[in-house]
Structures are given as C-alpha cells and as structure tokens.
C-alpha cells in the first residue's frame, strides 16, 4: 500500500521555550486509511496537528515528517495545503470583513497560481461553491457571510468541512471536530466527511470521545499520552477507552 | 485624502479643514479616506439636543508619508451623541499623528461620546502617535476613548495559510479585514481604490 505520511521520532516544543510537548512520535498512514488519535487533555493531540500543518508557534527539535515522499517540515503552511493537507480547526478563526466567497476564491487562486494556472472562472467557482455548500446543508446566503463571524459552534464546524470540500485534500486532519457540536450538527459534519472520502484519501481524526468515531469509523487507533503514542490498535481500542478511561494505558 | 458624507464626496485634497455644526436633531455620517500623507482637521460643534455624528476614518501610509489628523469634538448641548472610529495601517518610514479631543460642556448632560483609534504598525521604522483626550465638565455622560497600536494576528494568518492562501495574500486580507468597519457603506469604486493601495 502506498505510504502517504510517515512521522519518525518527532519531538516538538513551543517555539522559543524548552517546553517539550511531543516526545518521540512514530506514525505511518497509508493511502485510504482513517486513523484516530485519542488521548486525554494536554496529551499533545492539537500540537501534533499544528506541527503537521506548520503552525509557526511550534518548533520541531528532532525527527522527521515525510508526506508523499517529500520533507514536510521545510514546507510553509500554504505549501502544505497546496500539496493536499487540510486541517479542520478545533477553534476556527473569525475574519471580519472578509466573505467566505472571497476567502475561498483567494485560497483556490493562490493554489492555482502555485501550479502555474490562471484564476478560476467566476462561473466555475460559483458552481463549485454551490455544490459544496449543499454537502453541509448551507443556505445560499452563506457565501456572502464574513468568515466565521457570528457563527454558532455547529456552523463553524460545517464551514470547516465546506472548506475541506472546496480544497479537496488528500490528507484531512479533523482536530476535535466534535467539540461543541450538538447531535444534528455532528451528523451533518460526519456525513460530509464520509461523502468526501475516496479510497485514495486518508484521514486523521483527533478526538477524546467515542461519539464521532461511531460515524467516521477508523482503521487504526492510536492513544497519545504525555507526548507519546502509548498504544496502537484497531477500532476495538475505542471501546476499551470508553470502558476503562485513559489511565489504563 | 477624500471625505465622504453618505456615498458622495464632500471634500478632497492634501489638506482638509472641516468646520461642522450640528443643530438639534441633525445627524451626519462622515468617512475620511487617506491613502498617503496630508492634514485633516475636524472642528465639530454639537449645538443641539438629539444631534448625532458618526465620524470614521482610514489611512494607509507608507514610504515617507506624513499624516496629521486632528479632531475637536465639542458637545455644547447634551442629549447628543458622537462616535469616532479611526483605523490606520503604517508601513515604510511613514509617520502619522492622531490628535483627538472630546470636550463636553458643563451643562451638556446625557452626552454620549466615543472615540477609538487603532493602528497596525507593519514596519519598525513607521511611527504612529495617538493622542486621545477627554475633557468632561458635565457629570451625567457616557464617554470613552481608546487607542491601540498592534500587528497582524498570527493565528488569523495561520488559519488562512493552512487553507492555501499565500502569506502575502493572507496579509492583504487581514488589512482589508482591519479596515472593513470603516469602509462599510463606501462606494464600491472607493473600496477598490483602497484594496489597490493595500496590494
């Protein structure tokens, strides 16, 4: 099977400090696989997703990450996006005065420019927007709204999945996408993710609850604790965590 | 510099001096757009109850631009309202000075007067001097003022970059976002001019 992501001996600190959050992570993801990363608060789950997407507030001190054969750590956040990595944020950021339409058009045209293509045509863009908005049950006026401004928790997460659909990533990272969602919003988000899934696309689901993993079923489950993966197994691990908690690992 | 009232231009030039008087019940909405240096002085006298002025301004200064904005907001009669919002982006070796004074006369009770001046300082050599002043001689009023000088928010920037927006474009969108509350209601061609100046 084709290897998409390989993390080896990864150590990371908060930039400019000695505070080590990731203490030696090894993780390999193949094409088409869904991996769950579970763990208690403060285990380093969000740091892992931040390091994968190149957030400048973290610094890798040892180890490597290879994505589709390339050294991910030398790539800027936007280059990683262009290469097909997407993260759904736990706390999506509000951008007042910038419409979702303008934001997405800018994102798509930046990628096209990097690929040596011209801007997307207005008609093609609108068609794409309409198609992807329907996927997460967004009303037409959604495109005109300012990015995440005044959105409910559910709307913010739906907006994340909408953007994921627009950008069509090869590796999606869902960082605590279930936090703050009611059952209906969770179902729409999970259905969106499952609809977008193809045998070529891989997914990392970061969560501390079982709920989301009943709808987005993982092939592999990792338990992250104190900056290390302490256990890797199949989906049966999810049930064990629910029954015994993280203390038993 | 261009000064708008509603959607029409009421003044333009490198040096503007506006003497404005609002009588009872009068309302006014003014927006100053300064793409570069110059001098703008607003002498506002609020002389009647129920008068309401909304004064906004944006400035983009770069290179060796020198900008001077002075606002004198005098509430001579109470039960009146003024609201000021000035936002500026400073690059290069530009210098800007915002001198804003609100005076509430002794009998001007129930006055509401607000003033905010916020700046993005995007180069170490740019200088912005902000001097908000309140002189209140009445005791039953609602007044506030504030000034900030900051930089672009990195979390916002990272969010956009993670979606494939290049650093350069992300910064541009952040500047548009910062100026948006001032630009609300301006004609589209003026917004386009501002966007072009940000590029």
Most extensive interface between two protein chains, with residue counts:
A-B, 32 and 24 residues
Identify low-pLDDT runs of chain B: none
Number of strands of chain B: 12
Question: Roughly how many Å is the radius of gyration of chain B?
Answer: 18 Å
- Tally of separate helices of chain A: 8
The number of helices of chain B is 3
Task: Give a written overview of the molecule.
The complex is a heterodimer of chains A (249) and B (199). Helix content of chain A is 35%, strand content 30%. Chain A is an alpha/beta fold. In chain A, helix 4 (122-135) packs across helix 5. Chain A is globular, with a radius of gyration of 18 Å. With 199 residues, chain B is of the alpha/beta class. In chain B, a hairpin with a 2-residue loop joins strand 1 and strand 2 (8-12). The longest helix of chain B has 17 residues, at 167-183. Classes of the chains: A alpha/beta (249), B alpha/beta (199).
Write the layout of secondary structure elements.
The complex is a heterodimer of chains A (249) and B (199).
Chain A (H helix, E strand, L loop, with lengths): L2 E12 L5 E11 L3 E5 L6 H9 L4 E10 L2 E2 L5 H6 L2 E4 L6 E5 H15 L7 H14 L10 E2 L5 H15 L3 E5 L7 H14 L5 E6 L3 H5 L4 E6 L2 E6 L2 H9 L5
Chain B lengths: L1 E4 L2 E5 L2 E8 L4 E9 L2 E9 L5 E10 L4 E10 L5 E10 L4 E10 L7 E10 L5 E10 L5 E9 L3 H9 L4 H17 L4 H11 L1
Parallel strand pairs in B: 3-5, 4-6, 5-7, 6-8, 7-9, 8-10, 9-11, 10-12
Antiparallel strand pairs in B: 1-2, 1-4
Helix pairs in contact in B: 1-2
In a few lines, what is going on in this structure?
The complex is a heterodimer of chains A (249) and B (199). With 249 residues, chain A is α/β, with parallel strands linked by helices. Chain A contains eight helices and twelve strands.
Which key features would you list for this structure?
heterodimer, A: 249 residues, alpha/beta, six-stranded mixed β-sheet, four-stranded antiparallel β-sheet, 8 helices, 12 strands, 30% strand, B: 199 residues, seven-stranded mixed β-sheet, five-stranded parallel β-sheet, 3 helices, 19% helix, elongated
